[in-house]
Amino acid sequence: MTDAPLYAFGLGARRGVAAQDIVELVRRVARMHNVDLSEASLYALESKAHEAGLHEAARELGLKLVFLPLAALRARKATAATHSPRVQAMFGVGSVAEAAALVGAGPNSRLVAPRLTTPVAACALARRVEEGDS
How far, in Å, are 25, 31, 41 from residue 37 at the CA level? Predict the structure, then answer.
C-alpha cells in the first residue's frame, strides 16, 4: 500500500495566482471526471511554495498541498500528454501540471485528464495504480 492518494491534482500557476482561480479549476476538473475530492491531494512545483493563492485554495478545498522538487517532475515528463514549448524552456518538462499529478499519484500512476488551462493556471489529474489494476 502506498501513501499516495487515489487521485492527484497537479497544478501549474503563474506568480500571484488567486486562490479562487485554483479552486474553480480543481472543482471543474473534479466534476468533469467524477472525482470525490476527499480521495485527492494537490501537487505543485516546490518553487511555488511561497504562493499564498495555492495555500488558500488548498484550505478552501480541504485538500493536502504537497510541493515537489523539479527533479521529480522531470523524471515523469515522458508520460505527460501535452507539451508547452514555453514551459519546456522554463522547467525542462512539457507540462508542470501533468508531471506533478503523475508524481503525486505515485509510481506507475496514470494520467486521467491532461492539463486544463486558464490564463493563470493549469490543472491535470492522475490516478494511483494499485496492484492488480490493468
Answer: 13, 10, 8
Condensed to tens digits (0 to 9), the pLDDT of residues 38-94 reads 999 999 999 999 999 999 999 999 999 999 999 999 998 877 788 888 888 988 898
What is the model's pTM?
0.93
DSSP letters for 8-31: EEEEEE-TT--HHHHHHHHHHHHH
Cα angle for residues 61, 36, 94 (degrees, 5° grid):
75
46 CB-contact burial (10 Å; exposed 0-12 / middle 13-18 / buried 19+): middle
- Dihedral (C-alpha) 67, 70, 72, 75: value to the nearest 10 degrees? 150
